[in-house]
Predict the 3D structure of the following.
Amino acid sequence: MHRGMTGRHETTAVSGETVRAFVPAPLPPDQPLEVTPARRKLLEEATLALGRLDSITLLLPDPELFLYSYVRREAVLSSQIEGTQSTLTQLMLFELEESPGVPFDDVVEVSNYVAALDHGVARLKEGFPLSNRLFREMHAVLLSRGRGSNKDPGEFRRSQNWIGGTRPGNALFVPPPPHLVPECMADLERFLHDENNPYPSVLKAALAHVQFETIHPFLDGNGRIGRLLIAFILHHDGILSRPQLYLSLYFKRHRETYYRLLDLVRTEGDWEAWVDFFLEGVRDMAGNAVETARRLIALFDADQQKIQALGRSASSTLRVFQAFKARPLLTIGRISGRTGLSFPAANQAVARLEALGIVREITGRRRERAYAYDQYVAILNEEAEE
């Protein structure tokens, strides 16, 4: 549906240039979303997929094993959209402090993303509201070190930013002027908590993501916080027991369509085209996560059977295997600490896992070697390295 422009232009002067910045109207849209049979079916499919995703805890003996790595895959994908080149393996090596030599600038951005997500989850567990203050706290963690750390971490911007082009005057899109950012974000926060909002949580997340990206309230990190916002809305509203729906892979695969549909909302008010795209992404990525979990369960079961066939040495080897399930990249020192085995015993157990083809040494070094649970990492990397 074409409603016309979903906001107004505010003319401002930036560095002596006249600039037309876009200020979005508050949510929800004045004209309600058109609900066709096809769109209602998409909404039902997305909602069912979210239910299956939330039930993933019933499939896994310890869901935290899956979430640890799945969150890191999301961090890699979300950061790749912003241009970083870090891989999942590099991130996990970086998190092993004994493993130097990993490129710092890119991987620290990904590590910051994991920390920002973890901070937000912890705050919500404390009963902290989904709010602008929470977004600012997460942003402060996201830009706490590395690139972007000089771009006002944790603060709404006080200067004009832009998307595309070399300056606001030739940009593809100019978000609201800085003096209107607090008002726009206050409107968004009210929408998130409006009990009279007519839309279910998944549609609320769809609308809120566009609004956040349109406001672009920070000098840097808007895309990453905006993508996290989707999962946090669904978690806050009780749709997901953990914020474990991540759409970065979908947005990465369909990057041109994603940006085109955001622009169509702003210029023509076509919320429906965006909502259809968004619901397809929710359905597909929730299904992707469930399928990944099933594959991991099958992998764990098959590898455990191989280890149990070792006989007397199976016991200590299984303890080390459990450590690799929790952290797919480990050093012998870390394994010893996590399992309580002596360094030589841990080393022998890793050698047995290596002989079975379950783990592989990945550094090529003689000292401070790191081992990867190869197939586990490969399953997670299938999409992350597309």
About this structure: Residues 63 and 173 are 41 Å apart (CA to CA).
